[in-house]
Amino acid sequence: FEMPPKIEKNSNREINFPNVYFLIPDSMPAVKNYKNIFLENYETEVIQEFENLGFQFNKNVKSHGLDSYTSIPYFFSMVYLFKKSGIFDAKLHVEINKIFSGFNPVVAEFRKRNYKYIRVDGAGFIGGCLGEEDICITGRKNFFIHQDFIFLERSYLIKIINKLSKNDKLKTILRFLKLDTNFVTIFDEDKTKSKNIKIPEGYTSEIGLKKNLQLIDAVIVNDSFEKILPSLEESPYFFHWWFSMPHQPIRFNENCELKYPFIGKLARSANELDYKIWSDSHFGHTKCAEKQLVNFAKKILKHDPSAIIIIHSDHGFDHNAMKGKAKERLKRNLWSNLTINNMTDLFSTYKIPHKCKKYMDPNNSPVNLFKGIFACFDKKKTQFLEHKIFVANEKHTLVEGLLKKNKKGDYKISDFNN
User: Fold this and answer.
1) How far is 265 from 268, CA to CA, in rounded Å?
2) How many CB atoms lie within 10 A of CB 136?
3) 379 by DSSP, 3-state: which?
4) What's the pTM?
5) Run of H or E including 111
């Protein structure tokens, strides 16, 4: 594919299509699987809440992989990347990282239709916006480059900065230098607009938070999602945010109160061996994620009533897949049918114009999601790909095969070469 150039600033663009908002809540499980994942009797009204807002809730939606790295790329590639089982080709790693950075067919198709690409940074395998975006929204911006962030995380300098940040007399200077670690700065590409969101209590450093993807936490605690929404003057645009909820680490309880790091009786770990403790913490985190997703949808609709909104997870979670230390964890080729379903069944809902529904994949395969959206824009039906689930090992060095059910209904991994 060819990537069209970015939209020139102040260019006159015809607005023929609605803005598109694509939210990926990392590890959000399928609602139907709650009863298989949690110990609690999990009652939820989230489906009804979305339907009341005009959303279609999609059932029986499956991922293409068992983790984010092997599932999210298919939203944006619109083709299958794995051609055969065996060694994970180094060239494929490069291609996947380009997809995560925004250099992908979906962004290209939006650009062809004069859309701006607006990415909210704060999650994933690519740290920081890399320039493919027309507008980048981030919670980690000061005069340090990305390598300097890594240096700071490994040095004592961040501890000094943290200490200085607590001194009211020095805060003004640190803020001028963009070194005040008590705020998350949100900015656009030309740096003409900047908003500060206070970092939630429980965290000590903006820089130290990098691995915990702090922007979503600040947005939740401060109820400030509307602050990261683009101005409608940027229309039409494709707004994309992949965020770490309800993905580990466990930070929130079911009332969305920040309880991180958990201590004492509230101690929590994603690989907790005790199923009762594990279930309780993930139950609360998922309940909070539900509330936030509904809240985000309402705020988008208030901001942009005609918007296309897609909320779609990348994979689910399961105790047997997560418990124990990495070296002791059950290998993926030994997972039970229940574990595989919990990991591959997805949360999927969208609000699209009624006229678009006939263009969407009836099987709701993620690889076909945007093929359907573009087909609607072009008023021309498209060919959809058959759904496939690929199994790669945790280190992403080996593509083990295709995951299919045999005649007995059990999942089996088979070699492929196509």
Assistant:
1) 9
2) 21
3) coil
4) 0.84
5) helix 105-112
